[in-house]
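Why should sequence recovery work at all? Because a backbone constrains its sequence more than one might expect. Tight turns favour small or flexible residues, buried strands favour hydrophobic ones, and helices have their own preferences. The token representation captures these environments compactly. In the example below, the structure is given first.
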């Protein structure tokens, strides 16, 4: 009996000891699980927490916020995590899914490079700084990237294909950031004719009409409207519903193209210099002739006066008659000179004066010549700059300064402004315009632009600061009238 008591005592102690040890192990394991679950990722603990919230968290994402902010329990979040892990007794925590980054969409400029060189970067025939230079990509000009070879990319731009070091190019998203700095937005009309309005409203006044044959620079994007530059000072709004807007960059130039442009500029400068010399020679010649004519008339008047005085010496009656005749002759000479002077004025400004009636189709040409020669001369200056108020065909001119300077070469004097020029010469139908005729355009009811017809339905004109002297469709905007100043 005594032996049985001893055995029972030993067994009891053993059970108590085992229970204590086992209990300690479970607590330790529970604590460790909570910690490991937290480190493995919050998804498991959040799912466990949501499961004991009577499904509320599943329908309300704000439960997650409430969970992270719940510090009412003295154990804080860790206590909640440990308790939640123990409640299920047996569930094994699942590993959190590996985080995956959302791929960044590829830039639409991924294959476009924009030159960020201080001035230009050379385009080489092969990927080496020692290889032949085939062209230049000036700052802000763009190229299409066709291949990458280490630090070099093969590009195509304009007529040039070659290699450039990548360090000189902004590519992809970097290129997109330079669009506003170097790109030019152009609006191409998608309908036959489009109204250009003074303001962003279909009820606003119409400045002019433009056609789908040309593209126009976009000055500002205004949502459903775009502000465009038509030419000169004609800027207005068009509905974007009827235009397609695209971005264009300057392109590379080949070595030969650059040389040709240098030759063109030199030839244009020489042509302008010769024209100025010819105009100066012609002016001096006219002044000489005028002075000679005046001198001859003065001598003639003086001779008549002397003759009258001489006969006056013969007798008193004769003297009076002679004196009277002499005076009449002198007066007649003076009137004749005055008439000639007036005629001379009408040769230039008079044509403008007579053009008041020529609005109805009257008037006459100002000089003779070949319209094709006028066109050939004018086309030499395409590509030169537009400068408001300027008259130089090489250094910069506006529209009326361009026409005035071109016709000056052929001895024809035009007034300074397009409005005044629209009243010179002979009015003709626009459909009858030939090379050398003037084409006029209006904005807001007034003439504000002039161009020279070059034939084939096109004109040459000093357009605006962006395009300079250029050629366009004769109906790039609706013409107002045409005038013929050379026959």
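From this structural description, the recovered sequence reads:
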């Amino acid at each position: 009996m005594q032996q049985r008591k001893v055995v029972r005592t030993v067994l009891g102690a053993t059970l108590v000891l085992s229970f204590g040890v086992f209990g300690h192990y479970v607590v330790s394991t529970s604590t460790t699980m909570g910690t490991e679950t937290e480190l493995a990722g919050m998804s498991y603990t959040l799912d466990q927490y949501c499961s004991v919230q009577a499904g509320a968290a599943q329908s309300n994402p704000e439960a997650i916020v409430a969970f992270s902010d719940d510090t009412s329990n003295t154990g804080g979040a860790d206590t909640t995590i440990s308790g939640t892990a123990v409640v299920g007794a047996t569930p094994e925590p699942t590993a959190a899914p590996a985080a995956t980054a959302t791929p960044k969409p590829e830039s639409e400029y991924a294959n476009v490079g924009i030159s960020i060189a201080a001035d230009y970067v050379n385009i080489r025939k092969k990927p080496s700084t020692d290889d032949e230079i085939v062209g230049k990509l000036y700052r802000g000009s763009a190229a299409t990237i066709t291949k990458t070879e280490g630090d070099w990319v093969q590009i195509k731009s304009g007529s040039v294909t070659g290699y450039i070091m990548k360090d000189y190019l902004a590519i992809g998203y970097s290129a997109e950031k330079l669009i506003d700095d170097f790109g030019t937005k152009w609006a191409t009309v998608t309908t036959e004719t489009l109204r250009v309005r003074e303001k962003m409203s279909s009820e606003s006044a119409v400045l002019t009409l433009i056609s789908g044959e040309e593209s126009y620079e976009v000055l500002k994007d205004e949502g459903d409207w775009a502000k465009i530059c038509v030419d000169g000072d004609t800027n207005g709004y068009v509905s974007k519903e009827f235009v397609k807007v695209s971005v264009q960059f300057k392109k590379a130039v080949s070595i030969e193209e650059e040389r040709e442009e240098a030759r063109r500029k030199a030839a244009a400068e020489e042509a302008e210099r010769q024209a100025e010399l010819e105009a100066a020679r012609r002016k001096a010649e006219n002044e000489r002739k005028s002075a000679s004519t005046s001198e001859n008339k003065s001598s003639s008047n003086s001779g008549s006066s002397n003759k009258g005085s001489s006969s006056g010496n013969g007798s008193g009656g004769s003297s009076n008659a002679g004196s009277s005749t002499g005076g009449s002759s002198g007066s007649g000479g003076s009137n004749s000179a005055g008439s000639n002077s007036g005629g001379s004025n009408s040769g230039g400004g008079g044509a403008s004066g007579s053009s008041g009636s020529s609005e109805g189709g009257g008037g006459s040409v100002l000089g003779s010549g070949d319209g094709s020669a006028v066109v050939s001369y004018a086309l030499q200056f395409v590509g030169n700059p537009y400068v408001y108020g300027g008259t130089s065909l090489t250094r910069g001119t506006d529209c009326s300064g361009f026409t005035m300077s071109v016709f000056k070469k052929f001895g024809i004097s035009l007034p300074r402004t397009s409005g005044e020029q629209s009243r010179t010469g002979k009015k003709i139908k626009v459909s009858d315009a030939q090379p050398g005729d003037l084409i006029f355009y209006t904005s807001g009811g007034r003439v504000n632009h002039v161009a020279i017809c070059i034939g084939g339905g096109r004109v040459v004109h000093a357009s605006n600061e962006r395009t300079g002297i250029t050629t366009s469709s004769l109906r790039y905007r609706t013409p107002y009238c045409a005038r013929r100043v050379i026959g």
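A few observations help interpret the result. The CA atoms of residues 270 and 394 lie 10 Å apart.
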